[in-house]
């Protein structure tokens, strides 16, 4: 067993678009680790069998993507607190004792990206304004709450989803109407877009930024394009901005460390690989 080449991979459907194989492949090569990271298209019907079989075939863990991020929670033996809080897992660790451990590194990927991209970022400096209330917002909100942000302003086109997050995460969340999303940006120390607005092929990002303070740190989870309209305008207003590609890279690093025993560096080379440069 110990002589086995460690295998990891990403399961989802579809997985062809995933950037993870290129990124983990880059890190394996860079650190001279004799391992492999493989994309696997797994249907909902095959998910249970995959999780039972892959650990016996030399897999040390997996990333999980759409549509399995929620379903794996019910199939894992152990679920981390942060995965339970977010309600989804993106990382599985197949432990030596045979147990499957489900974790979610999206929130830590979000905060590690902000800390790297905006070194002076102080989560407690003031309210955070979060646009969107989907899956990505859950990870962002839980990470901000964990970092000690006292007021998290939340606005979503479908208000009920924002209200649902408030019911779950408590009174530190203040819900704003989507038509007034611009208002919550006033006085915010951290501004985050978790919607798909501004992404290639999606509608434009049009939330008014008049109230945006030049002291705010602004980030977007959209990374195609890297320079979104939100980030461009925020920078023009003097804000420090952090693009969303870093979150993708930083959420991958803890999994790589758990599977292959070494914390990989999130640097320009890793960014270039994911950008296909
Ligand atoms: P993810 O897991 O990436 O967050 P998601 O759960 O589908 O994906 O959420 C997408 C987010 O983008 C949601 O906040 C969504 O708003 P709704 O909850 O109202 O759907 C938001 N979004 C997508 N298209 C939008 C649009 N045209 N205008 C405003 N918000 C939009």
Considering the chains and any ligands shown, give keywords for the structure.
single chain, 277 residues, alpha/beta, Rossmann fold, six-stranded mixed sheet, six-stranded parallel sheet, 11 helices, 12 strands, binds 2'-monophosphoadenosine-5'-diphosphate, EC 1.1.1.25, aromatic amino acid biosynthesis, shikimate 3-dehydrogenase (NADP+) activity
- What structural class do the secondary elements suggest? alpha/beta
CA-based shape: globular
Strand content: 15-25%
Q: How many helices? A: 11
Calculate the terminal CA-CA distance, rounded to whole Å. Answer: 37 Å
CATH architecture label name of the largest domain: 3-Layer(aba) Sandwich
In this entry the ligands are:
2'-monophosphoadenosine-5'-diphosphate
Radius of gyration: 19 Å
What is the CATH topology assignment of the largest domain? Rossmann fold
Name of the CATH superfamily of the largest domain:
NAD(P)-binding Rossmann-like Domain
Average pLDDT figure: 96
Write the element-wise H/E pattern from the N-terminal end onward. Answer: EHEHEHEHEEHEHEHEHEEHEHH
Determine the fraction of residues in helical runs and give it as a percent range.
Answer: 25-40%
Total individual domains: 2
């Amino acid at each position: 067993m110990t002589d086995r080449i460690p295998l990891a991979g990403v399961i989802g459907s579809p997985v062809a678009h995933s950037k993870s194989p290129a990124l983990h492949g880059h890190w394996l090569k860079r650190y001279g680790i004799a391992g492999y990271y493989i994309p696997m298209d797994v249907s909902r019907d095959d998910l249970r069998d995959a999780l039972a079989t892959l650990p016996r075939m030399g897999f040390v863990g997996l990333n999980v993507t759409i549509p399995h991020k929620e379903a794996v929670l019910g199939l894992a033996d152990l679920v981390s607190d942060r995965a339970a809080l977010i309600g989804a897992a993106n990382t599985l660790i197949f432990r030596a004792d045979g147990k499957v451990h489900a974790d979610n590194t999206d929130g830590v990927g979000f905060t590690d990206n902000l800390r790297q991209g905006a070194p002076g970022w102080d989560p407690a400096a003031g309210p955070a304004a979060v646009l969107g209330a989907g899956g990505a917002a859950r990870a962002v909100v839980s990470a901000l709450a964990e970092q000690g942000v006292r007021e998290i302003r939340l606005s979503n086109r479908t208000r009920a989803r924002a209200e649902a997050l408030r019911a779950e995460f408590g009174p530190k969340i203040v819900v704003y109407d989507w038509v007034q999303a611009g208002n919550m940006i006033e006085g915010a120390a951290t501004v985050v877009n978790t919607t798909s607005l501004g992404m290639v092929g999606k509608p434009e990002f049009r939330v008014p930024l008049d109230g945006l303070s030049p002291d705010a740190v602004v980030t977007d989870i959209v990374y195609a394009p890297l320079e979104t309209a939100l980030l461009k305008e925020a920078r023009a207003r003097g804000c420090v901005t952090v693009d969303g590609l870093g979150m993708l890279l930083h959420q991958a690093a803890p999994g790589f460390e758990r599977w292959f025993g070494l914390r990989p560096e999130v640097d320009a080379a890793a960014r270039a690989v994911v950008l296909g440069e």
